[in-house]
Amino acid sequence: MTIREFYKIYSQKYKDNKYLNDICLRTLIVKNEGIKDMSTFFLCFDDELKNESKIIEDIKRVVNGEPYQYVINEAEFYGLKLYVDKNVLIPRLETEELVHTLIHKYLNINYNYVVADIGTGSGCIALAMKKHLKNADVFAVDISNNALNVAKFNSDKMQLNISLLPGDLLSPLIDNNIKVDVLISNPPYIKNKNEVDENVLNYEPHLALFAKNGIDFYERILKESFKMLNQKAMIAFEFNYDQKNELNEIIKKYYPTSKVDFYKDAGNKWRYVIICLE
Q: What is the pLDDT of residues 210-255, one digit of tens each?
């Protein structure tokens, strides 16, 4: 059977499945057949399929709701190809927007910043910051040792040197007297389980998803942040679309004189904030 024939059969067979879309099916074929990338997929269309049984096995996992990124152990983030598994969240496009805005609107790519990514997971934010801010010292913190193992694997694979610190939020930075210029975090911010899709709930780590009242972690970070921030530092958060007003009140509580810029994501929902300390 050729790739063309297989692709036609399975794209039709699961055309109504909400998890196996066209891009996902192509990705599973590309990954298992050793095709260079998606751009060369159709150049191999008439090649004989070599790993049919493995692709069918992967398709079944996706059809049943498992995110295809976990199936292939890979996710893309801001030009990086990351290893991911069930110990870490799958990086989201909204987080890419936060990183892009911070790098291109607020930072000088040649400056020697000290950057800290709190709740690093796969290391996606920390590694993207290090790639684009080559002179920066980047620290990545997570309470999960399993997540830090994933971040270390990605750091080693990409040869991007970041410092991995185990611990709860800012504690390892404060305990080690590390002073930071850029504090960035995409902490757990989901309040109710019914806010997320079933496959996210079933497969992605709850430790990285849920917060008791949605904004617990923002207040904890802001309350302690003065202990480890340099003068004129920046704080950048991703947050849930309905948390803007509540988060703004907390920011005013701890940094009443700072410049605060809220941004909407590509879906026109409030999604991230950048705080510039005065």
A: 777 878 999 999 999 999 999 999 999 999 999 999 999 999 999 9
Radius of gyration of the chain (CA): 20
Which parts of the chain are beta strand (E)?
75-77, 80-82, 114-118, 137-142, 163-166, 180-185, 229-238, 259-264, 270-276
Rounded CA gap, 37 and 148, in Å? 28
Beta strands in 197-269 (DSSP E): 229-238, 259-264
What pTM, to 2 d.p., does this model score?
0.92
Instruction: Say which residues have a Cβ less than 8 Å from residue 124's Cβ, sequence separation at least 6.
Output: 75, 77, 78, 80, 82, 91, 95, 154
d(C-alpha 75, C-alpha 163), whole Å: 22
Give the separation between CA 185 and CA 271, rounded to whole angstroms. 12
Name, in order, each residue with C-beta under 8 angstroms of 2's C-beta and a sequence gap of 6 or more. 45, 46, 47, 48, 49
Q: Would you state the pLDDT for residue 55?
A: 96
Phi, psi of 95 (to 5 degrees): -70, -35
Query: For residue 179, what are its two tokens?
Result: 């002073």
Place of tokens 């709850």: 206
